[in-house]
Amino acid sequence: xxxxxxxxxxxxxxxxxNILLAGVEPIVNNYAFYLFQLDSHGLPINNIIDxxxxxxxxxxxxxxxxxxxPIIKNAVGLLRSYLDNAIFVAGGPHASGDPLGxxxxxxxxxxxxxxxxxxxxxxxxxxxxxxxxxxxxxAFIEDDRLVIRRRSRYVDLNLYAPFPxxxxxxxxxxxxxxxxxxxxxxxxxxxxxxxxxxxxDNVAExxxxxxxxxxxxxxxxxxxxxxxxxxxGIKPDFNAVLxxxxxxxxxxxxxxGRIFFGTFPSELRPDSVSDDIIRExxxxxxxxxxxxxxxxxSNRILKIIHRKHSxxxxxxxxxxxNRYGFAVDVDLIFGFPFEEEDDLTDxxxxxxxxxxxxxxxxxxxxxxxxxxxxxxxxxxxxxEKMRKTIAKLIGLGKAYGEWCEQEKIAKLIIELRNGGLIYxxxxxxxxxxxYVC
Length: 437
Description:
Helices cover 38% and strands 19% of the residues. It is α/β, with parallel strands linked by helices. Helix 1 packs across helix 6 (117-128) and helix 8 packs parallel to helix 9 (238-252). GO terms for molecular function: catalytic activity; cobalamin binding; iron-sulfur cluster binding; metal ion binding. Residues 165-405 form the Radical SAM core domain.
């Protein structure tokens, strides 16, 4: 009998599950690994019970985001009723953003805090050897207090495959992890820290592997595609981006592969866009549409949310991108609690100004995500006048987005926070103890 690790994920966290499995399965040899997707039909409980009977020890891991909390809580409770000897491990954006609530309200034994590859491997080995599994990189409860053992070093992406190709599971290649922008509404900086990059040859190697398996379209995971290789992830390193695109092109062209750069699940920061870099990018990529993260048409809002660029930067970026044949999807977020009538007026003027270009507006609602400086704030829902304005843009084909669904998510998160299932950053900081290891 071997020890077993069961990783449970949802449709929205499948990339995270793939990346985690790719990092851990090849180096933890004394475990059998299993993957289960949690969906509207729940979990295949009988299958998991059958697996548990074949295991010396069983560890059940969940990687999840905040909107999935009610489902996760029910799933953990159900599994605990059948598997009283299992160790439950939480990871993903929510667990790192709110380790206190994850441990005290959701029924987990330990949280993988931040990046998971090294921490989970050490944790599994510790369990197998009957050692303390509260290894470096975890959060746990000790003497009624939250303890966080934060890692002092970042994961080197080049040490791990970007997906578990041996299982024939693939996803966009993570070429950049972390972000220096530290926007106050976004979890990326606060979970992953400063930006790091997968080396060009490494990216080219796995891209070639993908296309050789029949997957023709190569996409990437990066907070800012044009920030690839630069010290801050914002001001582009022209040579690094150019080398990446050139080597990608050479490595996949014999298979008919196509490069999609600056599109989902990535985007471009407006202050990274310049004539010279877009001119070269146009030569190598196959996408005709890119995403630009504007976030607001109000300079006041951009300053408050720590965006570090201006509305004027967005206008210039759209002009340049259109000049080289790229249509642009412009991200806009509404619902910040400090958003005033003048800010909405400025955003409408901005929409009208760049509406003459080849653009669409991707509309979002502010969600107070755990672990961010805005985790304790409430969403300011739009009035009827603004809702009609957005609806008109959608009707004209100039806007799209799941902003109404995001309003429901924001309401759910606020409700869960008010009900004590989620802890804001202020609450966590008051009763936590952090060690660097």
